[in-house]
């Protein structure tokens, strides 16, 4: 399992009320990529990216992960005037059913490779 640098963790740590979109790439049963923007959160306890939502177990991305756990995930933005920033994660995902006590199903991504740039002046991984 790859671990995040302090700069990557700072970038992934969003202020309360702020949301940053990520993009999740999964693989369909016929081997085609499926890419979707979505909400996410960093699970500090496990060092994973967790993704969930309404009726999540019924989504194509959830089914894709059940079939093939290899995924890519990216969070990025651009600061003015032109300073792109990005954290890209490649790893294995787990499709976790909703708990019997309530709540939603989720996809949990365990990073195997992390690449980032633009987080600190001159820093790139």
Automatic annotation (TrEMBL):
One of its GO terms (molecular function) is oxidoreductase activity, acting on the CH-CH group of donors. Gene3D superfamilies: Electron Transport, Fmn-binding Protein, Chain A. Residues 18-105 form the Pyridoxamine 5'-phosphate oxidase N-terminal domain. The keyword Oxidoreductase applies. The keyword rRNA processing does not apply. Keywords: Oxidoreductase. GO terms for cellular component: cytosol. This is Pyridoxamine 5'-phosphate oxidase family protein.
